[in-house]
Amino acid sequence: MHTNRNGRIGVDHVAALLLGALLALPAAAQTPPAAAAPGPRNLPAELRASAAADRLAWERLAYLCDRIGPRLAGSPAFQRAVAWGSATMREDGLDAVRLEPVTTELWVRGRERAVMTAPVVHDLPMLGIGESVGTPGVEAPVVVVRSFAELGPKVEGKIVLYDPVIPPEAGGGARYGVYVRFRADGASKAAALGAVAVLVRAAPVHSLATAHTGMLRYDPAQRKIPAAIVAAEYAEWITRLARAGVEARVRLEMEAHSAGNVETANVVGEVRGAARPQEIVLIGAHLDSWDVGQGAHDDGAGVIHVIEALRLIKAMGVAPARTIRGVLFVNEEHGSDGGKAYEAAHKAESHVAAYESDSGGGAPLELAASGTPAQLAWLLAAVKPVGLPLRFGSGGTDIEPIARDGVLAVGLRVDLPNYFDIHHTQADTLDKVDPQALRDGVAATAVLAWQLANAPEP
Amino acid sequence: MHTNRNGRIGVDHVAALLLGALLALPAAAQTPPAAAAPGPRNLPAELRASAAADRLAWERLAYLCDRIGPRLAGSPAFQRAVAWGSATMREDGLDAVRLEPVTTELWVRGRERAVMTAPVVHDLPMLGIGESVGTPGVEAPVVVVRSFAELGPKVEGKIVLYDPVIPPEAGGGARYGVYVRFRADGASKAAALGAVAVLVRAAPVHSLATAHTGMLRYDPAQRKIPAAIVAAEYAEWITRLARAGVEARVRLEMEAHSAGNVETANVVGEVRGAARPQEIVLIGAHLDSWDVGQGAHDDGAGVIHVIEALRLIKAMGVAPARTIRGVLFVNEEHGSDGGKAYEAAHKAESHVAAYESDSGGGAPLELAASGTPAQLAWLLAAVKPVGLPLRFGSGGTDIEPIARDGVLAVGLRVDLPNYFDIHHTQADTLDKVDPQALRDGVAATAVLAWQLANAPEP
């Protein structure tokens, strides 16, 4: 999961909040799974039962994590993931399995290192920020700022450390919301005042000297300077020194660079609709991850939700009314190339809804949706058998381009309170995923897709 | 804190356990602070009050952590810590402040890296084990073993990964107890069968891709092979691959080497006894730390307990009956050079007790002690005003040599449930120390020292 530059997750606008209050029914108040199945079979219940017995969900996630590993968009590992995704869909007997071309930029981290050189010589646990330029070595005194407002002429020739004030009681999402602004825009804002590099404090609830990565956006009007995240403990160290009147010096070495454009693909497979095959219910996740950890929660779990939901639906032997189209997107993490390419190629088609699972592999908690009041009312009726509360919010980064065309967007939100401790870190690994929660996510995705594909006309 | 090679912490022998049951009185059952003070002043209560108001405790720990930093024995930072320790004791007006020469070996980590090269290319979060030899680069398939018993001819030419079975419900100390055997002896046991390097799984309760360090012991009869700790997530990854029949390959590069012997010193300062100055109550901590993190809990907090206890006692303006001698030891972490040198230099003196604080800066929980039944009975009576339960256990690594000469040994144990998550890691940093708990540790140390120095004859 990537979040937008102002750090808000999910809630789109004030009107959404107002309507959201009407729609956010507790799960218990909703009708239990029933009625939606055509004929004597209760197909949502069958999907739940097959998801509950789904061993392949875990095996496939283990394969993706352990055998393919982290899969930065455009990297050799990503290309292996693309081949695995399409082979898996073919193995499952899906319809119209294909690769849809996407061009993406390959960013390469290379070796990297940040060393405090004064007053103490010490390696700083760090990760370069995705898309950052590299440096053979830049060393300078560090100026600590708490906000963009504290930037000024004093940063000229210096390394800026963004160490924002975060309320101690703030949860993971709120902390991430504070930090992500500096990660995204900190480099260019400091460069505009002559800084030579930037460091950004990681802001998880729990840190064990944990560095995170993510993407930045260079302002084309400014010089590109290197940028890295430092673990909270080490940002605090430098900040304490600054408060004590002691200037820390840091040397930053990063081999980070762009390796240029790479031709790759969104992986697409379908369960073809019988009654209205031209109407599309898109279910998606992003196949890429950051290049650290294993991308187990972000977004390996979402990939499994999608491919397993498709497999279980196909295996029922009953075609849905509409076509359910699974898409494994390219480069959600730093460019949304797959989401944009999908929109460009498919905007003329009739999408009744687009769903994305990109909040990790925790137990399903709620659905976030954005659309017109009529779309949302339709959704509310259709997804009752999913058994999850509904609230307003972003469906997901990959489906934002098509959502902007007016398509109803739905995102799965899960119960994963420590998500922002491991998000974009070396610790986003398979051991952090609970197999039962993963199966529950498959069930939610499958039932949701089935319901959307069979609900009455919007 | 370093623990002994079989991983037991604190409990010395079966007889101790039996007697321990008699001595482990709950704090509430002990008499409150009173009576022990000579004259109308209640000196233990005064010490508690001054400790409760002690701002210098935190300021000095911050100085040690932030301005001196991690201080591996014999390193330039350690030598600065020695100078700081003796200057601080002089500033506080202690008696007979001096440096007592100790020779220690300086181990240097240098740069290091472990990379999984197959089936996925990925950096493994790791730390070389202290005292390990380096390697310009060794690459080999990995053989996973769960125990020493699983070693065999199959490890010849391979890298051994020790991934011991640990009960999921095991706490930090128990997990550490399992892991430390492999950290200490794993290299030589694998080398005996032809292995080329070893990796040991870190075993904290919580891991965020966290590597730990510590020391190993080479068997002189075996070839020295390099050894490193890998974060739990990455050990599990390799183990899952092995179970799936997939051989992982790892390349290990370590610049680790010995930089030879260094002349350094235990830092000693006293509050001279008035009545029986030749009788010594030793209170100590170790001034060295590992070279990662800041050594805040291990053993910066203990150093502060000792120097602040001495300062507060001295500041009362009342001499104790016996001499209270503070010692900041050299190289507890990988050689106990300071503890051995102290014993060699002072064994002829009359020590009534030796106390060490080396379990971190958490709130005081209990005292562990080892000695004869008569010594322990004396201790029990003397330390009632400390208000902590007493149980059998090791006093501490630095005072073990003198304890073996028959001196009563006492160790402070603190409430720090996450200690083994940060122990010997980059995350043992100042932010993990609670200022109030630190002051409480100063109070416990000061009252204990005062009581031992003024109790009736053993």
Summarize this structure briefly:
Two copies of one chain form a homodimer. Chain A has helices at 14-23, 43-52, 56-68, 76-91, 172-191, 232-243, 296-315, 337-346, 373-382, 400-404, 419-422, 435-454, and strands spanning 95-108, 112-118, 122-123, 126-128, 135-145, 159-162, 197-201, 227-230, 249-254, 257-271, 276-286, 322-329, 350-357, 363-370, 390-392, 409-415.
Could you describe the 3D structure shown?
The structure is a homodimer of 458-residue chains. With 458 residues, the first copy, chain A, is α/β, with parallel strands linked by helices. Chain A has two domains: 289 residues, Zn peptidases (Aminopeptidase, 3-Layer(aba) Sandwich), CATH 3.40.630.10; 139 residues, Glucose Oxidase, domain 1 (3-Layer(bba) Sandwich), CATH 3.50.30.30. Helices cover 33% and strands 25% of the residues of chain A. The first copy, chain A, contains twelve helices and 16 strands. In chain A, the strands form two sheets. An eight-stranded mixed beta sheet of chain A has the order 1-10-12-11-13-16-14-15, with helices on both faces. In chain A, strand 14, helix 9 and strand 15 form a beta-alpha-beta unit. In chain A, helix 7 crosses helix 12. Chain A starts with 13 loop residues before the first helix and ends with a helix. The N terminus of chain A is likely disordered. At the A-B interface, helix 3, strand 3 and helix 6 of A face helix 3, strand 3 and helix 6 of B.
